[in-house]
Design brief:
The longest helix has 16 residues, at 151-166. The chain has helices spanning 66-73, 90-97, 112-121, 131-136, 143-146, 151-166, 184-197, 216-230, 239-242, 247-259, 288-292, 311-320, 337-347, 385-400, 406-413, 415-421, and strands at 2-13, 18-27, 30-35, 41-46, 51-54, 56-58, 77-87, 105-111, 172-174, 201-203, 234-236, 264-268, 273-277, 299-301, 325-329, 353-354, 442-445, 466-471, 474-478, 481-482. The chain has 16 helices and 20 strands. Strands 1, 2, 3, 4, 5, 17, 18, 19 and 20 form a nine-stranded mixed beta sheet that branches. Strands 6-7-8-9-10-11-12-16 form an eight-stranded parallel beta sheet. Strands 13-15-14 form a three-stranded antiparallel beta sheet. Helix content is 31%, strand content 21%. The protein is α/β, with parallel strands linked by helices. The chain is globular and about 65 Å long. Helix 3 (112-121) crosses helix 6, helix 6 packs parallel to helix 7 and helix 8 (216-230) packs parallel to helix 10. The structure holds zinc ion. Residues 84, 175, 204, 237-238 line the site of zinc ion (ZN).
Length: 497
Amino acid sequence: MLDILIRGGRVIDPETGFDTVADVAIAGDRIVAVGHDLGAARQVIDATGLVVAPGFIDIHAHGQSVPADRMQAFDGVTTALELEVGALPVGAWYKRQAQVRRVLNYGTASAWIFARKAVMIGLELQDGEASLTVMGRGADDPRWSVQAANEAEANRIVALTRQGIEEGGLGIGIPNGYAPGAGAKEMSLICDLAAETDTPTYTHIAQMSNIDPKSSIEAYVNLIGLAAATGAHMHICHLNSTSLQDVDRAAKLIAKAQAQGLKITTEAYPYGTGSTIVSAGFFADPAFSQRTGTGYDAIELVTTHRRLRDIDDLLASREADPSALVLWHFLDTEDNAADRALLDISVLYPGGAIASDAMPWTQPDGGLYEGDEWPLGDDKTSHPRSSGTFTRFLRQWVHERQMLPLGEAIAKCSLIPARIVEPCAPLFRRKGRLQAGCDADIVIFDLEQVADRATFARMNLPSDGMRHVLVNGQPVISNGILDLNAAPGRAIRRGDR
Ligand SMILES: [Zn+2]
């Protein structure tokens, strides 16, 4: 007898192009059949009028907690991976997460930048510490950020990063923009390690600027050079934000590099506002406004919604709390058609993934919130992308503006991210697809209703339209209601099959 039968929905499999009204049969944690007359089941989900698709795989999720998982479940996410920053030590991170009642499947990359902090300034890495907390540490001694490593240091950075991969890291997180001082020799060694171990790298490019020298374009060209020189798979994080006004030029260069067979992939999130920590080095660049085209008033402190006045205000704020989260409004997608067109290029980039860059949830005192409260209170802040990335994409780009067919949109949220990670974790061949034998990570949504609700004023509003969400065959959301006891999320490590 089947465990669950999903009956009569519009079933979409992005790999085969299957897009037909059919039933989906689930036994245990797997899909066992797709078709008609599949037999009796303990539970039947009526999917009439709804879309049935593989659960979304978010390869850029910094939240990694129960509240982050719950908000992302309403956004259709069934697997949330911390790949851009990563964690270190990786084994301790997985150990700590195993004690959390994770709702979604999870995993991390090995954190090159933490290895760098440990080697360059002797920062002690604490077992299982949240990645964004470690990102804020060491702000008082910026050598890890601005200085090139000598040969001995570079070798130790590579050795620590390798240890993270060997402990199960799903690749190497390279938030180069936070350590732009890292030299080409060190980066080439890190990319050698990636190529040798068949693990992708996930890069936040070394610099963001509309003008040379040290433009965004220079950083993309360097990244393409590393892919060519070492054979490493270079994944480019958030093409929408780090390209600033040069999205079109960046997209053209990436496409040319891909056409030459280089292993380069990319992702975007559907907002013109970024989020990071206030101590990010590029904010303190004296030429910040000239290089980015935005003023300090484009930077907003998340917990207080206060906009900064000038560089002195920025420096005082980072002194007060280097890990404080900020929003950075770099594109005006509400009122500026040219900015909206730039966002379109990144979101619709052919073969590109949608990835949220979801941020952790923060309490009014600035500390991370990782508790059990539901619904999340209005005093918990993050970024609307932590709640609404995938549903916003489906709402605006697919349903309202009809910029791409539904099957292709589903691929950008599921199959394409699965393919990015699967060379290092073959288990992903069973995810991002809706076929017999695949994992029963499934979203069932109403295309008429699916929409993000989170705004910059109220980030804690879960999205609409996800009627049922299953993770490993277990319902997390049923008839639009979250099961507070559901914790079916599993760890995914390098080598898992
Ligand atoms: Zn980033």
